[in-house]
Amino acid sequence: MDRTSAIAPNAPVEKGVAEKIQGPAVGYWTKLADGRLRCDVCPRECKLHDGQRGLCFVRGRAGDTMVLSTYGRSSGFCIDPVEKKPLNHFLPGTPILSFGTAGCNLTCKFCQNHDISKSREMDTLMDRAPPERIAEAAKTAGCRSVAFTYNDPVIFMEYALDTAKACRALGLKSVAVTAGYMKPEARRGFYAHMDAANIDLKGFTEDFYERLCSGRLAPVLETIKYAHRETPCWIELTTLLIPGETDSPEELKRLADWVAAELDETVPLHFSAFHPDYRMRDKTRTPAETLHRAREIARGAGLRYVYTGNVHDEAGGSTLCHACGAVVIGRDWYEITRWNLDNTGACDSCGAACAGVFDGPPGDWGRKRQPVGVAEISP
Length: 379
What we know:
CATH architecture of the largest domain: Alpha-Beta Barrel
Strand order of the largest sheet: 16-15-14-13-12-11-9-8-20
Order of helices and strands: HEEEEEEEEEHEHEHEHEHHEHEHEHEEEE
CATH topology of the largest domain: TIM Barrel
Helix content: 10-25%
Largest sheet: 9 strands, mixed
Number of strands: 20
Structural class: alpha/beta
Strand content: 15-25%
Radius of gyration: 20 Å
CATH superfamily of the largest domain: Aldolase class I
């Protein structure tokens, strides 16, 4: 029995009567000797007969090819502050056009976007937009970048990549908000077109990933290392602190030590507060002191930029100079309150460089969140 089947016995394919699955043909699959097609995008390796969908529900087999049923269809568009992704060191203060589709290749019991990521109702995808239209809308709205988010862009990667190419043609950046659960070949194709990513490191044990996400930790760690070491993509990491699951000091120390040793001390790490949701309503909200303790543990391991999220914590949301300790970027939620960097990203107090992607002074988008339809943004 393969690893995926061992974790979730009936998870690799959508069972039932074969159906006609519509969508453009996509790559990353292999025809097996028994006639099934194996999806090679993520480590689940769903093996499909005609008319079956993978666990993600959006990649499926139609005849002798794989198709993506959500290509060109979105669950909605919104202009956000880039800090909401969260990205604190990538074009701070600027607006970013965010969108997602439906489905997911993990089954996290604590999913806080489950209405989108777990949706199997294609009718929830109300906005139709080709990649070029999304890029044009972002440019017209004054956004500096486009984010693939709300659900994981890994499963709609062809749509995301075509949009990223259209964005690059207009001078816009592309951002992935992802769990990083990918196979190596798909990973290479995906990160070749991403300018920044926030990768969700959900926990730091194989037990947690298997028990609560029906996945594995190792492929996520490989994705993080690859994106940081082998590509110019700027990465930041986020870990949700679930009481009794991912918040022990010992696990947090191991996680921070891994980031310092396998990546480097400049990679920003965000600790985010949990709230009861989806199939994990028996847990309590993350106490503020847990977030503060996690931040101190990670800073004690040598990480320069450690943040708290999903809470109002100006100290935990601000960026400090690693050399002199001065506040170089002050934040109140997503609002920039202080800016003490020059145009190259160096500290005004001591001249030490702050790691990140900076392009002149910060934007002034603030904490606004503006839902839009791409048809509403006319060139």
